[in-house]
Amino acid sequence: MNPPGFDSLTDRIGNTPLMRLNHASDETRCEILGKAEFMNPGGSIKDRAALGIVRDAERRGRLKPGGIVVEGTAGNTGIGLAVVGNSLGYETVIVMPDNQSKDKIDTLKSYGADVRLVPAVPLKDPNHFIHQSERLAEELNETSPNGAVWANQFNNTANRAFHAETTGPEIWEQTQGSVDAFICSVGTGGTLAGVARALKARRPDITIGLADPTGSALYNYYKNGELKVEGTSISEGIGNSRITDNLEGTPIDVPYQIPDEESVPLVYDMIRREGLSLGASSGVNVAGAIRLARELGPGHVIVTLLCDSAMRYRQRLFNREFLAERGLELPDWLSLDD
Asked: Which of 17, 67, 125, 265 lies most in the core, judged by the most C-beta atoms within 10 Å?
């Protein structure tokens, strides 16, 4: 137990600020607010899912002192689990597709996580990183002295529940109940599902939006009732080709499909106009918020998420050659070495 007046690291997960995005707000004549999840201790919104999953496993007696947390992840959840695990005395083993950014891989390793890189294959393949992580957790639970638990972020609804308990109520309180709409992208579905449930419980007519990158099937599912993938995206950690247990039953009113040509320029725009250096998923989220603001009309309060830092994606977002191959441009005012 902490001495009175002093917090531990896990106490500082959540309660992130809500920031006005001035340019987007002025342009749409709405209040577009971004919840600064990049200010969590591990640098992303996935700290919340990590803490919710770990605390739930503790309560259920599945995670014992000195145990191991195993997860298959594209990066940020792994970082969140490593941060939470180190703080609470657990080891972390991460199974990760080998096509993710080196920046995130290096960050995971710098926290002492045991990172197992595996080839990127479709989910239906038994060697998909998620399936491998489940098998590894079972193996380690049998062979390790203190056992192991599989985090299972996509289908473990402790993820969704933690956002319903924390992120959603924070947004309601920070806007003093004036929020008209919430929109964000989906990876596991935990964030959108939890926030949507919390806000709909307080205001049933609030608008819930999905901002989905190309390369994901979710836009077509919520728009046309079919899981259909179209295009590709440079964004990492968002988009899905299935309805996870976390996302199941989420009340989504408005889906948008956001191409890189729309979202990536917003990443650079926020650097220059707002002083915010954010990853590609935040560009997708803000693009969705702008679209929703234009659809709802002036005078509305719209909240989205600012998920993580652009510095986790330097080899993509600031690589002129990589971008050019995908029909994207790095602004001339960004004076980086080619």
From this structure: 67
